[in-house]
Amino acid sequence: MTSDLMTNDPMTIDYLLVGQGICGTFLSWNLWRQGKSILVIDDPQPFTATKVASGVINPVTGRQVVTTWMAETLMPYTWDAYEAIGADIGAGVIRQANIIAFPPSQQMRDAYDKRIGEENSYIKPINAQRAAGYNDKFWQFFGAAEINPVWLIDLFPLLNGWRKKLKTGDLLLEEKFDESHLSIQADHIIYKNIKAEKIIFCNGINSFQLPYFRNLPFVFNKGEALIADIPGMPNTNIYKAGNSTLVPWYDGLWWVGSSYENSYENDLPTPLFKQRKIQELQMNLKLPFTVVDHLASLRPAVAVERRPFVGLHPHIPAIGILNGMGTKGCSLAPYFAEQFTEQSIGGKAIDPLADIGRFKRLLIH
Fold first, then answer.
1. Quick count: other Cβ atoms within 10 Å of Cβ 75?
2. What CATH superfamily is the domain 96-150+219-300?
């Protein structure tokens, strides 16, 4: 759909969505499945947060390898959600790729061992015979452990497949959203000559430049990753070697990262990150490797509690947001896109820990 067409053919729809990253993809898909009329505005850009993400859904996190928020609910839910959207776009977009972790210190080794002994733990032991199978690939200073299960999302086929579906249905407007053309009424919005019951912002860091959301307690984190060619590395698993995570990428390459910096000068790749990551790989890998690319992007997250922003604006019900997933976008976006859909259509409550209504006092009237 082009801007000229939009000018000549006024239209009325249920939902106008801004952004087609992981949040915009799942929200538009959920609304579409519910029979709602939608239009997605998205300016294609090569280095959005979703497009440079690893696509890993890992149920544990941190130096103490603790279970992530809602992992018991999200692990089965996300598998089903990605299988379903994959069926609609005709592509397999999820597979199991457990993490083989090589702890970088005795402290980390102890943390893994502690979790192995816990009931219903996602951390599993690796016996000596299996660990020996990695001796020609990794230096194992403190042994190995497995995180199981872990899902790996093929983000390019997912985003491109749903985008193609939107284009086929004439449901995509490929242009940059311009807030100066937005008019908000009591029970609808007007954007250019599009009338919609609601407008939902899923456009990453750009959402927080709008007056409706700029008072939210958000931060931008910078993530960087290298893309490397590592001949001989089996792509059946994800690997954590030292402080680096190695994720099967595309065309036989590997995503190696990542950094999460709160202090940065710009959103460009930095030579220091590349230098440090290469040094880490040299210390932990026995296989030769070649760096072929270096990616960077900014992603929004909640400053303190690390819970997303989900739902309709408490003072302006024609506006909503699905954003602030941080590094957990692949696991949180499908679940909260469905919650948003159920709230907007049927009035069902969103999890109060994620509902944007918890910041009612901070948001403008």
1. 18
2. D-Amino Acid Oxidase, subunit A, domain 2 (3.30.9.10)
The 3-state DSSP composition of the chain as helix, strand, coil percent (nearest 5) reads 30, 30, 40
Q: pLDDT by residue (tens digit) across 87-142? A: 999 999 999 999 999 999 999 999 999 999 899 999 999 998 999 999 999 999 99
Q: Give how far Cα 284 sits from Cα of 83, 140, 141, 289, 337, Å.
A: 35, 8, 9, 12, 39
CATH superfamily for domain 3-51+156-217+305-359:
FAD/NAD(P)-binding domain (3.50.50.60)
Distance CA 49, CA 47 (A): 7
The partner residues of 134 in beta bridges, in order of sequence, read none
pLDDT tens readout for residues 201-213: 999 989 999 999 9
